[in-house]
Amino acid sequence: EDGYDLWLRYKPVDNVSLKAEYVQALKAYSAATDKSPTIQVAVDELSIAIKGLLGVELKSADQVGEQTLVLGTSASSPYIASLKLQKSLDPLGDEGYMITTKKGNVIIAANTDIGVLYGTFHFLRLLQTQQSIKKLNITSTPNVKLRVLNHWDNLDRTVERGYAGFSLWDWHRLPGYIDPRYIDYARANASIGINGTVLTNVNANALVLTPAYLEKVKVLANVFRPYGLKVYLTARFSAPIEIGGLKTADPLNTEVQQWWKDKADEIYNMIPDFGGFLVKANSEGQPGPQNYGRTHADGANMMAAALKPHGGVVMWRAFVYSNEEPDDRAKQAYNDFKPLDGKFDDNVLVQVKNGAIDFQPREPFHPLFGAMPKTPMMMEFQITQEYLGQGTHLAYLSPMYKECLDADTYAKGKGSTVAKVVDGSLNNHRLTGIAGVSNIGTERNWTGHLFGQSNWYAFGRLAWSHGLSSEEIAKEWIRMTFSNQEDVINPITNIMMASHEAVVSYMTPFGLHHIMGWGHHYGPGPWIANKHRADWTSVYYHKADKNGIGFDRTASGSNAVAQYFPEVASKFGSLEECPEKFLLWFHHVPWTYKMKSGKELWNAMCYEYQHGVEEVENMQQKWQSLENEIDAGRFEQVKSFLKIQKKEAEWWRDACLLYFQTFSGKPIPEDIPKASQTLEYYEGLTFPFAPGN
Ligand code: BDP
């Protein structure tokens, strides 16, 4: 096995009695004779899966007798219509489904064909994870409307912050050649409910909006359509100048407005269900409305007006900060966007990263969540592991996503979680969304690290249903990816559940952040200083000195805490109450500060780095115990990567402790292994091979 099949492997069910139950229940299927492309896809998937799982051909039933799998809508299936399910189906909306047992038949019913497809994948998951299907009574609807992958893919097929090869989109061979991989990509996404894909990098190239590229985009959209996957593009703000020949891109200029309208008309003429634009503006050198003295709302609304007649949306990113701005970087997005609440048109979502800096191993939730009640706030998570070990570290990110979603903003009193802001329930928004920066590329197993697949999987599952637990999701994924045997599920669950914390411990314990290598972000670089942008250095963030370490974001410092609602602000702002995992994010703390463990901060930090390394050793041991349970190809790859991870965890520990010791002036406890090199050695390392150099 090489990992290509992801969680859709459909290996034979090894539990004899369950297999008998399944075979008995699935004698034949019944779907509309005049099948839509989506229903055809569902039937095809069922056939492949049943063949693989049960070793039998799934036959089409002449009529619905007993033990028939019936799929469809009340409109497409007379049998489903005869069951009079409409009352229960109505609340399931456009994408929800029900799976139910009626008169000895399994029924997968929905209001739309895409709902049926989602239900089909859910049903298959039951078989793959070996659940009983004797008496089913399942309904499911997604928590948010737009569940979207963001590919940071360039037109030359390099991928920004990509660690899994090149871009899947073969622009050179499109539109003539449809790589079968596009179809498997769409299947995988549909199987976890992802319904949109932004094909291009947020650092956008206007060329993708030219007719030659749009022809190619159209073909991808056609391939993805039956799977319910809509295509979106990033829109470069200066496109009217670069490809339109205009002198300006000022959003209040009527010619510019007309140019975007015409562009939208052109796109929708080719792709009637085009999703819309994702925009990075006035951020890290990208052009935007502020170049013309206009606001983000002016820019977003101009594009929104062009897309609106066609039903498209604008996902406008709030990832903005400037080195010229003297205020704490963590505060800048809030400062810029909060005053614009209520000024965005109704087909605009503001897309906010989970934290206020940048996808760090751990960040407190972004203060914009809850702060703009009149605006749909779209979550942006990073699935690719830019700051979490890149291509080789095993880090299961569901616990990190959940920590953010479950955080309480107190925007409307206790219980106003980030999840409720994002799913629209807190402020009654119908337009809602969640984005994940993709970790997918041309590598045979899609994500480079086999366990990267679990992050793609978890992102999709949480986007559909944020109430799921990380452990539940991990177990589903393990059962489908490796085995249904408890002695495989348990150790891998343990590995996954401990993995994110381990990375935090050996990289950025206690709220440290942004201390990685310059530019490529590979490896430790707490010494990074004196660069052309202070806000890209490490010393800006850790502020270590002989007295202590950490960024004072309380009232005595940048007062970033004040951007949170009072309950949260007072907790984060208080040295005693601030959770230790965020301590150095919000406080500058003396080296001698007594931690809850009773240890002084310096010692606690040393042991935390060491703990991270030990956790990786534990992961290695658990993985090793699976040698005879997992096919050699996948086993060996993960084993090698864990070895790299161990080495790099030690590198992080040694480099960071030696560096911070120059400030603390305190000894590293004797029982922590001695660094094998000097600080100068670590500082002198260069990485010409690191992606993103
Ligand atoms: C940072 C990445 C950079 C992205 C930027 C963004 O380092 O490559 O362009 O975020 O999200 O994490 O726009």
TrEMBL record:
Highest taxon above the source species: Bacteria
Question: What EC number(s) are associated with this protein in UniProt?
Answer: 3.2.1.131
Check the record and name the InterPro entries matching this protein.
A-glucoronidase_C_sf, GH, Glyco_hydro_67_aGlcAse, Glyco_hydro_67_aGlcAse_N, Glyco_hydro_67_C, Glyco_hydro_67_cat, Hex-like_dom2
Glycosyl hydrolase family 67 C-terminal domain residues are 447-671
Output the GO biological process annotations, alphabetical, semicolon-separated. Answer: glucuronoxylan catabolic process
User: Pfam families attached here?
Assistant: Glyco_hydro_67C, Glyco_hydro_67M, Glyco_hydro_67N
List the GO molecular function terms: alpha-glucuronidase activity; xylan alpha-1,2-glucuronosidase activity
Cellular compartments per GO CC: extracellular region
Using the record's annotation, list all stretches that form the Glycosyl hydrolase family 67 catalytic domain: 127-446
Q: Which UniProt keywords apply?
A: Carbohydrate metabolism, Glycosidase, Hydrolase, Polysaccharide degradation, Signal, Xylan degradation
The active site annotation covers: E284 (proton donor), D358 (proton acceptor), E386 (proton acceptor)
Gene3D superfamilies, alphabetically?
A: Alpha-glucuronidase, C-terminal domain, Chitobiase/beta-hexosaminidase domain 2-like, Glycosidases
Q: Which residues form the Alpha glucuronidase N-terminal domain?
A: 6-123
Give the family per the record.
Belongs to the glycosyl hydrolase 67 family.
Quaternary structure? Answer: Homodimer.
* The protein, known as: Xylan alpha-1,2-glucuronidase
